[in-house]
Amino acid sequence: MAVLALFTFASGRAEGAETRPVRIVAFGDSLTAGYGLPASAAFPARLEAALKAKGLDVRVENAGVSGETSSQGLARLDWSIGAGADAVIVELGANDMLRGLPPETTRKALAEIVQRLKARGITVLLAGMRAAPNLGKPYQDAFDRIFPELAAAHGVLLYPFFLDGVAGQSALIQPDGLHPNAEGVQRIVTGILPKAEELVAQAQAARGR
C-alpha cells in the first residue's frame, strides 16, 4: 500500500510539472518594460495573449527595467530570473548602443547572460538590436554582428531585430521618437510570434526530458 501511495504521489507530481503553464520571462529594458504604456499594452502582456490565442498554455512575465544596459542586466540576472522559469527572451543592447558603449562590452555581457541561463536548463530566445547609422559604419558593423554570432555560438533561438517593422515608422512610435506605442508593440509581437512559438516548443521538450 505504501509503495502504491508513493507511486501515485510521484505520478501526480510529474503530471503537474507537465501540465503547468510554460513560464516565459521577458528580460530586457524599456522596450520590454513597456515605457509609456499601461501594463496591459506592454510587450510581455501582448505576447502572452498572442501565444494563448494560438492555444498555448503560457505565462509571460515582465522583467524589463527602463534604461538598462546589458551589463546592468547581467548584474541582476540571478535574482530577476527566479526558480521555475522555463524560457527567457533576452532583449538588451539598445541602451548600450544609444550610449555608444563598446560593442565588445555588450557582447561579453550578453554572452554571460546566455551561458548562465543555459547552465540552468532555461531555453533562450535572443532578441537582436541594430545600431543607428549615425554611429558610423565600423561601430554599426561590430554591434550588429553581436546577436547572430552569439545565437550561433551558443545554439539559441534568434529574432534578428526586435524593432523590425517599427523602427523609423512614426505612426508606431511614441512622441519621444524611441519607444513603440501600443500599435508598435503589437507589430513587434506579430513579428516575433513564430520564434516565440518555437521557444515554447523547445521549453516543453526540455521539460519533458
Task: Give an overview in words.
The protein has one domain (20-208): 3-Layer(aba) Sandwich (Rossmann fold), CATH 3.40.50. The model is unreliable at 1-16 (pLDDT under 50). A five-stranded parallel beta sheet has the order 2-1-3-4-5, sandwiched between helices. Strand 4 (123-127), helix 7 (137-154) and strand 5 form a beta-alpha-beta unit. The chain has eight helices and five strands. The chain has 209 residues and is α/β, with parallel strands linked by helices. Helix 3 crosses helix 8 and helix 4 runs parallel beside helix 6. The chain starts with a helix and ends with a helix. It is 53% helix and 13% strand. The chain has helices spanning 2-19, 30-33, 43-53, 70-80, 94-98, 103-119, 137-154, 182-208; strands at residues 22-28, 58-64, 87-91, 123-127, 157-159.
Instruction: Say how many strands there are.
Output: 5
Series of H and E elements: HEHHEHEHHEHEH
| CATH hierarchy: architecture | 3-Layer(aba) Sandwich
Output the CATH homologous superfamily.
SGNH hydrolase
Decide which structural class fits the backbone.
alpha/beta
* CATH fold naming: Rossmann fold
What's the number of helices? 8
Task: Give the N-to-C terminal Cα separation.
Answer: 29 Å
What is the domain total for the residues? 1
Q: Specify the helix fraction band.
A: 40-55%
CATH hierarchy class name = Alpha Beta
Q: Largest beta sheet: what is the strand line-up?
A: 2-1-3-4-5
User: What's the overall geometry?
Assistant: globular
Report the mean per-residue pLDDT as an integer. 92
